[in-house]
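Friendly challenge for the regulars: who can give me the structure tokens for this chain first? No prize, just bragging rights.
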Amino acid sequence: MSVAHAVPTIRRSLAEGLASCPAFVMERSERLAFGQAVHRFIAAYWRHLQALGEETDMTGWRDLAADAWARTPGLLQSRWREYAGLCERFTQTHLGDLHTIAAVEEPITLHVGWAILVCTPDRIDRVDGGDPDDEATWERVTDYKTEQGEMDHQFQLHWYAQMRFLTRPALERLDLVLDLVRYGRPHDPITIERGELDEWWDATLQGLRHRLEAGPGAPVGGPSCAGCALRRTCGESLPSVAVAPQTDDEADVLLSEHRRLDAAATVRWDLLEEYYRDREARLDVNGEEIGYLLSRKPTFRWVALPSAVAAWARSKGMDWRSFVGLTTRTATNRGVQDMALAAGMAVMEFSPPSFKTRKALVGTRVRRKAAEEGDGRG
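First reply, four minutes later:
Bragging rights claimed.
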């Protein structure tokens, strides 16, 4: 007797992470819990309006918000005021549009043989105006976002769209909308026609299947690091996300670290400056020149008094009033520079040595020429 092996259930978020890194582990963070609480409230609010048959309810939302908060584990309790403010703002900026609602947080499931794929769009509306007894040919999928910064949600939207197309044969077009809850305004819809995502979908599932069959592999780092539970301990994690704060306390620690590192950097720079004060500059230290370095090229500098420059400019038929301003800065016109140099009004000179670093030119044409001329510059 053969026993069929259970196939894994893969949610969209896990699929996106594994597509980037075979060692991805979905994180259960406070930020994720906060978003889940807001999404619970929004779904409950839409169902509440459907039960009332009303387009809005400016008072009943409070109990719904409290219930969604109470049902969500992992929340930072000090964010209640922020959460309640978002819920209230949502009720003030969104009408129910009950006549178009087709689904509210209803899972879409697709069995592909080696896995069961699942996703849960926040809301789906029918927008083709067709007969309610017929299958929809045009729908709008709305995904609500609680993040404060811009993020890339293309994979998520494409996954939702293709899952909907594959489970609704009559569907021909989808409008995908990101709704930024904090700002009370949605992005312009992205319209996708049936068939547009087929090639991407096949390639994505091929890669996902390969990841699952190969088992957990070595981490590679990349875009999935931001949502991975291992990002603070993984050697391949992107530095920018490995230390990214998730709470006020973590942000405070990061600020303290920044201040200490900034002070340490200043001390080290001052010590380097003192070290090289009586030493020759070095021309190739990990690809940099360091020390008291002259400028690589001479710069133009006026040496005559402004009144003399004005008189000289007048004698050359130039507008001396506008020209006088050049006495306080470098002249950029090469022709003017040549005339001023010939008249002894200006010189070309190297700036005094100053402590700095810059890209090394060892082995380059510029450095070879300088060495041949023996100018002694650092």
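Residues 48 and 250 are 37 Å apart (CA to CA). The two ends are 83 Å apart (CA to CA). Your move, everyone else.
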